[in-house]
Specification:
116 residues; mainly alpha; 5 helices
Length: 116
């Protein structure tokens, strides 16, 4: 895996994860959430594309976890296994902007913000 994490707001997944720090992206095995072509299993991605959002941070719901598409069983398992907090990611994007968030995630080499 490349130790240099690319700083690019386009590498923020619709759910708030940072693709630039993902092992599959780093190894060239995934183009990133926003570059995947065609239909995809992810309802979060589909919703954001349909709404023309850059991420769930653009949604009017105050708390992302109140959305059934965002807070689904797969995301709960992912959060448990990896200790990630996608809601914290989305709220941080809202507060600081996507450009800041991408820079922060690249600098700290994180795919997701952790904890509560």
């Amino acid at each position: 895996m490349n130790s240099e994490i690319k700083n690019d707001a386009q590498l923020i997944a619709y759910c708030g994860l940072y693709c630039g720090a993902c092992g599959k992206y780093q190894k060239g095995k995934c183009p990133s959430c926003k570059q995947i072509q065609g239909k995809h299993w992810c309802n979060i991605r589909t919703c954001n594309i349909d709404q023309q959002f850059s991420s769930c941070a653009d949604c009017s719901l105050e708390k992302p976890n109140t959305c059934r598409k965002f807070n689904n069983p797969i995301s709960k398992v992912f959060a448990f296994i990896f200790g990630s907090n996608r809601e914290k990611c989305i709220l941080t994007i809202r507060e600081n902007g996507a450009v800041w968030y991408a820079a922060h995630m690249a600098e700290t080499k994180q795919q997701s913000l952790k904890g509560k």
